[in-house]
Specification:
The protein has 426 residues and is mainly alpha-helical. Helix content is 78%, strand content 0%. It has one domain.
């Protein structure tokens, strides 16, 4: 165990990609167990780790989001959000948050949200008088709504690996995602004067709101269609994702006429790269996971947690602290794949509902997307806007604290998370 830990953290420090780190560490563990006898199982374990039908939903959702973004949907969603809340003090900041909710139902990816709004909303906010660091901070805070509100790739991964209903996880993610938006908007409203945020334009007429709604209607239909088909039992997540891709192609290519063959090739290439990285992590983690299971490490960790306290509230706090700490240094997909098999049985022992536990874990990891030193959304925004990561982080801390408060509320109030799944019989 010590040898595997040293290998894992040593390679991480040296900067090796996390998928390779897990694969090499797992291989070292297997060699230490039995050498050539067990090493023959490595290819089988890697394939078995990926041989799950719901995983096909990920590339479909990612590509659909790429197409909708390229088609100019982002601009229409922002205009509609601005028509609803842009007239308030800090109006563009409010619009950013609300647009993140709308965009979340299309992509389900925080980095896609950060890149799209980093290119469009951050410059627009600067023109209205916001500082670039504050505009980036608002965008980063809103970006984690993407992988919380369905469709969420993290929910697909967690549900597939742990045997938890993906439809249930999708339904359970709706209220937490909306709550993040509401809390951040309240923060902007309360501190708008102190932060000297610009006042928005005059309140638009109902006709203006209707026109903005009409221009974004084709985009707003997509998340409703995805959720309706999955939660209604009409389609599986994978089937809904493939239909969403067909819809995105039709809207982008036929209605908006905004797609070319070179565009499609570039988007498919990006999708393949993103999916390939995730699948490499999953395949490599299956080796490490098998070694951990063989050596009963999850049971050992669970016993260690329970030896500290048998109080479920304390155990939940320890789980959240572990996730937020590990999330500072590791990719969230890798963290989820490694820790979910360890933490899920522990949550069952303390009586947590599997769907509630899944959303709690996913939200904790989503928050790590905007925490240095490896927060992916921070680096995406820094790359797109040319703002320094440390400057974004300084402006981000009030939103970070607010979202941690939401995480605690979600963790300790299960009825809030499970309200919609229960209502839908999930």
């Amino acid at each position: 165990m010590v040898l595997v830990a040293l290998t894992f953290f040593g390679l991480m420090v040296l900067g090796m990609p996390v998928g390779m780190v897990m694969g090499v560490a797992g291989l070292v563990g297997i060699l230490d167990m039995g050498g050539g006898t067990f090493i023959r199982m490595v290819p089988d374990r890697m394939f078995a780790g990926l041989d799950l039908f719901p995983f096909l939903a990920m590339p479909f959702f990612i590509l659909a989001g790429e197409i909708m973004n390229k088609s100019g949907i982002t601009t229409n969603l922002v205009k509609f959000a601005d028509a609803l809340v842009g007239w308030m003090r800090g109006g563009m900041a409010h619009s950013n948050m609300l647009a993140s909710v709308m965009f979340a139902g299309i992509t389900g990816a925080a980095t896609a949200d950060a890149a799209a709004f980093g290119n469009t909303l951050v410059p627009a906010m600067e023109k209205q008088g916001y500082t670039r660091r504050f505009a980036c901070a608002v965008t980063a805070a809103g970006s984690i709504i993407g992988p919380t509100i369905p469709p969420s790739t993290l929910a697909v991964i967690y549900g597939s690996l742990m045997g938890v209903s993906i439809a249930g996880l999708f339904a359970a993610g709706i209220l937490p995602g909306l709550l993040i938006c509401v809390v951040c908007m309240l923060l902007i409203a309360v501190f708008g004067t102190r932060w000297k945020l610009p006042k928005g334009q005059k309140r638009p007429s109902l006709l203006g709101i209707f026109k903005a709604f009409r221009s974004s209607l084709l985009a707003l239909i997509l998340p409703v269609f995805i959720l309706g088909s999955i939660l209604g039992g009409i389609a599986t997540p994978t089937e809904a994702a493939s239909i969403a891709l067909a819809y995105a192609l039709f809207i982008g290519g036929v209605i908006y006429k905004a797609l070319t063959w070179p565009d499609l090739y570039a988007m498919m290439l990006r999708t393949a790269r993103i999916t390939g990285v995730i699948f490499l992590i999953i395949a490599a983690a299956s080796i490490l996971g098998w070694w951990m299971t063989f050596n009963q490490i999850p049971q050992t960790i669970a016993t260690g947690f329970l030896s500290i306290s048998s109080n479920p509230q304390v155990i939940i706090g320890l789980i959240l602290a572990l996730l937020l700490f590990i999330g500072l240094f590791m990719d969230i997909n890798a963290t989820l794949i490694i820790l979910a098999p360890v933490l899920a049985p522990l949550t069952l022992k303390i009586g947590m509902d599997p769907v509630h536990a899944g959303i709690m874990i996913i939200l904790a990891l989503n928050i790590s997307l905007m925490t240095p030193p490896v927060g992916a959304c921070l680096f995406v925004l820094a790359s797109v806007t040319k703002e320094k990561v440390e400057n974004i982080t300084k402006a981000l801390w009030p939103f970070l604290l607010a979202e941690v408060a939401v995480l605690l509320l979600i963790a300790y109030w299960p009825d809030l998370t499970l309200a919609i799944p229960r209502m839908l019989g999930l």
